[in-house]
Design brief:
Elements (H helix, E strand, L loop, with lengths): L2 E2 L1 H7 L10 E6 L10 E6 L18 H11 L3 H13 L5 H10 L6 H12 L5 H12 L6 E7 L5 E8 L4 E3 L4
Parallel strand pairs: 2-3
Antiparallel strand pairs: 1-2, 4-5, 5-6
Length: 176
């Protein structure tokens, strides 16, 4: 039987910032679904009992699977990355939980991007800008920076630097 999935299921479990009028469902690959307005049915060969939350209603995939599916199904890569980063930043899932799902879903659309994003998020990149910066560092073969370094400012208050290369030699901080 079909279950809520992707952004729809993630929103039911608390993910904020990605509202959609489209309802996403996942069904076993053998299921034939009728088309309905604003409903997208994704067929899956890898949907198992472990992916479905045993007690939540309406029936839906567990949050780590929902986040991974949402990232795989959305259009732009940056939005995929934002979904993953937001789910971790909002403390709804951990990078380890996402990695468990990704490891099993090897034929996942955008698999390499999702793996890379989860790795960056586990390393401390929790915003789209930080994820873009990490990608930029890789593309120019820069060393991996230390992320979220805690320092005191001139007035003695604690601040966090987004990235730092080599003990304060080069630092970067985003102004939002």
């Amino acid at each position: 039987a079909s279950v809520l999935a992707g952004l729809t299921a993630a929103a039911f479990d608390g993910l904020q910032g990605f509202s959609s009028s489209t309802i996403f469902l996942t069904a076993p690959h053998t299921t034939r679904a009728r088309t309905r307005p604003n409903v997208v049915v994704k067929r899956s060969r890898t949907l198992t009992v472990d992916d479905i939350h045993p007690s939540r209603t309406p029936r839906r995939t567990r949050l780590p699977r929902s986040v991974v599916d949402a990232a795989a199904w959305c259009g732009p890569d940056l939005r995929s990355q934002a979904i993953i980063a937001s789910a971790v930043q909002q403390r709804l899932v951990t990078p380890e939980q996402l990695t468990t799902v990704i490891t099993r879903l090897t034929t996942l659309r955008k698999h390499a991007l999702i793996v890379e994003t989860v790795t960056d998020v586990a390393g401390g990149s929790l915003s789209e800008y930080e994820l873009l910066f990490a990608r930029l560092c890789r593309s120019y073969r820069l060393p991996t920076p230390t992320r979220q370094t805690r320092r005191r400012d001139a007035s003695g208050r604690w601040r966090y630097l987004d990235v730092e290369f080599g003990q304060g030699t080069i630092v970067a901080d985003w102004v939002y």
